[in-house]
Design a protein that fits this description.
The protein is α/β, with parallel strands linked by helices and about 350 residues long. The protein contains 11 helices and 15 strands. Helix 2 crosses helix 11 (about 330-340).
């Protein structure tokens, strides 16, 4: 019997692994702002971060060092650490009776692990075997608005071009962007150490490994594979180009999709007005569309620039633009939303 079943009569104990990182900090904020029902919050991190004090509600919590003894009393563990940490410690959580929501790529393509965006496939949560994967941030921000379209008129082909912020590479990358921008404006030399190329007033292909066989990088392959798994549709054809841009927070994505049947931009715009987790920002008169500055700190994914794809005379293709907070809906918020659903499924009900 899991801790979750044993503790069904009271609120769960929740742990955050990687609590001092950019996403971990947002997880704490999301739990607080959404008044997540928990009896106790444990903050876990590497030994170098242990001992730090962090606030949750009106309480000051001490970050504890992560160890294989950390999860004896934990019902739900939200992981925001490296894949190596997740692979080592997630099975320990399951062994000790808890459930993991993992933000790394370690388990996303495991056929036995649900890969969940609650607005799309929340029903998969009930099929977990102790671990639930949080998708890649670019994938979430790209495909969440497309789900209502796919349900009514199957998307058979998708072209994705991402404009990814420093937040996707963590707090150190955000600091490097800030510091390198100051140096550039001051006329000072700055040596980048976090990212492989100068970041201020520059953009570059996403800093992940290039597959020599296909020419696609790891981030692009994640978007392709995860779209198929989340949509539950292996037939959908996806191509992605992922680029790192000098924006502190919030990713943007240009999307062109082709449906099986004709579809109008007006139809898509109407769907976006009621799409869960989405806010329509599509002001043609004032040339005002989704921007990272507006998406930062927001739960919703902003969607706009909805227009017919003029390169497709069949009328089956539409182009649009999204912006979403990578640290929130692209990471921490999505994980907390999964946990919110988790406390309602039989394992915790």
């Amino acid at each position: 019997m899991t801790n979750a079943n044993q503790n069904a009569a009271h609120l769960p104990v929740v742990a955050i692994v990687g609590a001092t990182g950019a996403v971990g900090v947002e997880m704490i904020h999301c739990l607080e702002q959404r008044n997540f029902p928990l009896s106790r919050l444990k903050l876990l991190a590497s030994p170098r971060s242990a001992g730090r004090k962090m606030k949750f509600k009106n309480e000051e919590l001490t970050v504890q060092p992560l160890s294989d003894q950390s999860f004896k009393d934990v019902d739900i563990a939200l992981f925001s650490a490296s894949g190596a940490v997740s692979r080592e410690y997630a099975p320990i959580v399951v062994r000790d009776g808890g459930i993991v929501v993992d933000n790394s790529s370690a388990f996303r393509m495991d056929p036995n692990v649900p890969l969940v965006v609650p607005e799309i496939n929340a029903g998969e949560i009930a099929n977990h075997k102790g671990i639930i994967a949080n998708p890649n941030c670019a994938a979430i921000i790209s495909i969440t608005p497309l789900w209502p379209v796919h349900q009514k008129n199957r998307i058979k082909r998708l072209i994705v071009s991402t404009y990814q912020a420093a937040s996707g590479a963590g707090a150190a990358a955000m600091e490097e962007l800030s510091e390198s921008t100051r140096a550039y404006l001051d006329g000072r030399e700055y040596q980048n150490t976090v990212l492989p190329h100068p970041y201020a007033f520059n953009l570059f292909s996403h800093n992940t490994r290039i597959d020599p066989a296909t020419g696609y990088n790891d981030e692009e392959m994640k978007v392709i594979a995860e779209t198929k798994k989340i949509f539950g549709d292996d037939r959908i054809a996806v191509s992605a180009t992922c680029v790192r841009v000098p924006v502190l927070r919030a990713h943007s994505v240009a999307l062109t999709f082709e449906c099986e049947n004709p579809i109008s931009a007006a139809d898509v715009r109407d769907m976006m007005k009621t799409a869960p987790g989405v806010r329509l920002v599509d002001d043609w008169e004032n040339n005002y569309f989704p921007m990272p500055k507006d998406a930062s700190g927001q739960d919703d994914i902003l969607v706009g620039r909805i227009r017919q794809d003029l390169s497709d005379p069949s009328g089956r293709s539409v182009t649009l633009f999204t912006a979403g907070d990578q640290l929130l809906k692209g990471a921490a918020l999505n994980a907390v939303q999964i946990a919110e659903r988790l406390v309602k499924v039989p394992a915790l009900a």
